[in-house]
Amino acid sequence: MEQILKRNSPLDLKTAIAKAKHYCSTRDRSQQELRDKLYDLGAWRNEVEETIAEMIVEGFLSEERFAMAYVSAKFKLHGWGKIKLKKGLRDRRVPEKLIQQALNTIDPEDYTKTLLKHAEKHLSRLKERITWRRKLKLTDFLLRQGYEYITIHDVLKTHGELK
Question: CA 61, CA 158: separation in Å to the nearest integer?
């Protein structure tokens, strides 16, 4: 019963700031991620917004830094395309201007190389023998990875459907 009361009791500002500092010290966070976390911990709206403002002032929270780190990590580690990256940032309510800034940091040559790497890896797994079906399945896979159709089309055309 005591745990239930603790979870539902509101956080005071000092506790909220301490918890927010700990939460933001592990990795870069967006304002929305911190907002959601504080609400989950039982903070009220006033405390949440004051805590976010304090975290920005102290340098624990930066939407720009978060967007850059997110794009860098998801692109380098998972090979996500720009569409999937943009959706992830929009889901975290990052401003459109910062999303574009972060996406522009991706080197076009690295982007193409990553797309090719995904395509070759996926093609090696496909058991389909009919050419147009292989191309369709490959294109669908790359679209799910977040790559733009025109980019996929251009790369596949340039590299002869990666035969």
Answer: 43
Structure tokens at 82: 């720009």
Distance CA 150, CA 81 (A): 12
Residue 4 has pLDDT above 50, yes or no: no
Q: Residue 57 in contact with residue 15, Cβ under 8 Å?
A: no
Encode pLDDT of 19-28 as tens digits. Answer: 889 998 999 9
Percent over 90 (pLDDT), the chain: 61
Count CB atoms within 10 A of the CB of residue 66: 24
Closest CA to 75 of 44, 106, 29: 106
pLDDT tier, 2 (very low <50, low <70, confident <90, very high otherwise)? very low
- Burial class for 89, CB neighbours closer than 10 Å (0-12, 13-18, 19+): buried
Domain 2-61 = CATH 1.10.10: yes
Q: In the predicted model, is pLDDT for residue 45 greater than 80?
A: yes
Report residue 129 as tokens: 């023998």
Query: Which pair of tokens denotes residue 64?
Result: 């720009």
87 contacts 146 by C-beta, under 8 angstroms: yes
Half-sphere exposure of 125 (CA within 13 A, CB side): 9
